[in-house]
Design goal:
- By secondary structure, the protein is α/β, with parallel strands linked by helices.
- About 25% of the residues lie in helices and about 30% in strands.
- A three-stranded parallel sheet has the order 3-4-5, with no helix packed on it. Strands 1-2 form a two-stranded antiparallel sheet.
- The radius of gyration is 18 Å and the shape is globular.
- The two termini are about 25 Å apart.
- The mean pLDDT is about 90.
């Protein structure tokens, strides 16, 4: 898992300021796991949901050292076109918003009668 860092932003036109949140280290963590699990022979095909070209070095490392392993990238809705660098390296598939909506977890997830997770209301179908 990555984390979010607060980052001050300012509109160049109206000079309004606000605090935005910038995701950090998720791409690095995915890259490390992709390589680590290849070395441990824990997958034959890895499905990675991203459009982030920062994963290209890890994809290249796996391709060189484990030519029998496949990596398939699935881009989030509306991100396929920005994944040009990744598309040049591996098979890339699109996921559409309807796919996400049709495959949401239930509102509440229980384990032995104990609530372990709840879907945020903004993701309600």
């Amino acid at each position: 898992m990555g984390h979010f860092k607060n980052k001050a932003r300012k509109c160049r036109s109206c000079k309004a300021t606000w605090t935005a949140h910038e995701e950090k280290t998720s791409d690095v963590n995915i890259a490390i796991q992709l390589v680590h699990r290849a070395y441990r022979d824990e997958y034959d095909v890895a499905l990675v949901m991203t459009a982030d070209s920062d994963l290209c070095p890890a994809i290249d490392l796996v391709a060189v050292n484990f030519p029998d392993k496949d990596i398939v990238v699935v881009t989030p809705p509306g991100r396929y076109n920005i994944a040009r660098e990744i598309r040049a390296k591996v098979e890339v598939k699109k996921i559409k918003e309807k796919h996400l909506v049709n495959n949401l977890l239930p509102k509440d997830v229980y384990d032995n009668g104990v609530l372990v997770a709840s879907r945020p209301s903004k993701y309600a179908p």
